[in-house]
Structure prediction request, 890 residues.
Amino acid sequence: DLPEAIENTIEVARRCSHRPREHAPILPQFVNGTRSSGAQGETEAVELRRQSEAGLARRLAEEGVAPGYEAKAYADRLAFELNVITGMNYQGYFLIVADFIQWAKARGIPVGPGRGSGAGSLVAWALTITDLDPMRFGLLFERFLNPERVSMPDFDIDFCQDRRDEVIAYVRERYGADRVAHIITFGKLQARAVLRDVGRVLQMPYGQVDRLCKLVPHNPANPITLPQAIASEPRLQESRDSEPIVAKLLDIGQRLEGLYRHASTHAAGVVIADRPLIELVPLYRDPRAQLPATQFNMKWAEAAGLVKFDFLGLKTLTVIETARELLARKGITLDPARLPLDDAASYELLARGDTVGVFQLEGAGMRDALRKLKPDRFEDIIAIVALYRPGPMDNIDSYVSRKHGREQPDYLHPLIQPTLEETYGVIIYQEQVMQIARELSGFSLGEADLLRRAMGKKIKKEMAQQRTRFIEGAVGKGVDRARAEFIFELVAKFAGYGFNKSHAAAYALIAYQTAYLKANHPIEFLAASMSLDIGNTDKLNGFAQEARRMGIRIEPPSVNHSEAGFMPSDVAIRYSLAALRNVGRQAVDHICTEREKRGRFKDVSEFARAINPRIVNKRALETLAAAGALDELGIDRATAFANVDRIMAAGTRSLEDANDGQNDLFDGVARTPPPIELRPAEPWVPTDWLSREFEAVGFFLTGHPLDDYQDVLDALGAETWVNFAAKARTRRVVGTLAGTVLAMRERQGKSGNAYAFVAFSDPTGQFEAVVFSEALAASRELLQPGGAVLLDVEAEADGETVKVRAQRISSLEAVAEARHTGIKIYLEGTRALTTLAKQVGGGQGELRIVLRLDDAGREVEFVLPRGIDATPKQRSALKLVDGVAAVSVL
Prediction:
């Protein structure tokens, strides 16, 4: 009825379609005054020099000069850097960053030692922006700020994840609420989201839309588009062809996919201006956020002249701080910034590859690399952080062989041997490329940075010019021309994937700090790590397994001992109440507060009267009972679970009495209320106990359904999931696993054959296997939740994920019973069965081996390929009837 309304939306959109003109960076003033005046710039330059010189003096007094240097070398480099910074007019930027970092450190907010190329600045170290002496570790200022290539400096700062917002709040107060804002980002309509949104507008039933959405594969790392999903999923095609409304849904969805859906904010970026931001950029107000956001994204905000400051939240810093606080409770003082870098226990831990939970070093492939490397110095950690990535990984074996003397280092030329000695002649860092150009060909470090950049980006025209300059410079220093050409080509190859040493060194320091904590204070370190991953049951399970491997007990949750976080004792870690499913933080805080007021709960009646059922609701109580958190109150889990309603009723009565002021006082003496009457309940059998615990905790905490089969699994040669997965990450492997079935999702392939994704659990973790049609048809009955099975599998790595294919599945209970009934065939996994097939079944095709367990006719069957002919004696061991071996007792 209003056709012009749609036209007006276009008019409004056109009026809002604005892009800023390019503007030089607009920095806020560090001290009061007018930023644009010359006097202001001079004032900031003087202030930067004053703070830097005073800061350097403090650093050298505390840490001393690096080996091979004198204090004068530090003073000369500081003067050089200050001249470059003030010459480029960036003194205000350094002062602003130093200001909020020093404020954070003064208030005990953990700040990272550095990130990116900024760790190469001596001024940054003097101002405590970074915590690595760049002279000691050979870090270059020109990699960060090159006077021959003008660009904004960019400090990425890591803060404790829990207290990052405090620093942003300080910046907002310091520079003005109208001058500080987040940077906007935009979320796009992806395949599933666009189907849900369009389906809602088309008023399609939710269940129908949900069913269609689940046919679209979900892979956050590599999102699939709607056209790709339709092309690969026959059921989507069938729905489209048979239902016009689905065809319309898919048609509109494909046209809208990829458009912006909603606004969000950059994970770390904050802009600070020298005037109210509304004078520079349009702003967006998210009602859930304290700060506004620029309506321009990061690219356009910087084009408008706004300077971005990155306030990153790094969970590992919070883990380190939490561990430090836990140690302080025991009277142990630890300063992560002052740890000795030569701790033997830390390097022994790294050499063993025991790095679960260690920053940057916990992946399975990285652990294998550490076992080969056996690091014994901090420089080895820097090297492995830089090497363990696509491309440079090819050089790990060479670095390791040279370190351990199995291969002689090649330093290419005596002039550059000092540059390459630290890495045994392997070019790892971008800084080494720059130093080679300086030492071999006479480049300044600024020119060498331009060479590194051209090599890294493969800029052919610039490379050709630089090649001539490099070779002629080397020849001028007495290097043979052919050798100079060879070195240039080799350096160009390495420069393509060389890593920034400043970043590697800073992150290696955090890695070392976490390794030190794990090696010297493992209980506090693991408790802190678990507290920070409290919502991730996969991570918690991994940490629990690691703790047990290290001989550290994980004590079950308890309303009398647990807190909101994971709490360490001398020999154990107490499981957190807040980590349980369906138990919110408010309920945990309420239980802990009541326990603190009243003392530990003596029995279930006292606990019932203490809690407020409006805070600790029925689902939370059921979870506490199933997880064993009420075990210490004098009742078993089944009884506690069956009486949740009575516990809640007692809590409600107690709350009402308190509100009414009824204290049951007789003659001034308080009467103890009678205990609540509990209805009896049949105790849970172990399998029910564990399955309920699994539902409450997210993994098997106090035991595992496979524990009863451990002797059988040992005899069968079955592997644990964690060991099998570690091997599979390095090569394709086959083997035998055992697992309890958690869930099965059945699918249909393009050919119409059924297959399934089945989730399993073993005592070391959880994994998923794909079961294709043939194996699925033979084992569907066994794949019910709770079933215990043996799997013959093959697996290989896809990135950090291990893809598992189940080739054959059998009942673990049947195999265990077969052993128990006295059958003397030792079924040591598929290998032994295959050997049996070779011994018994000549010819081609398949052999069905049926083990008859007893006179009742119970059987377990294995289908195997036939092998070589058997000897008469071997044939007599089994009676072959139509390819079936009927086995009683051998």
Summary: The first helix runs from residue 3 to 16. The mean pLDDT is 84.
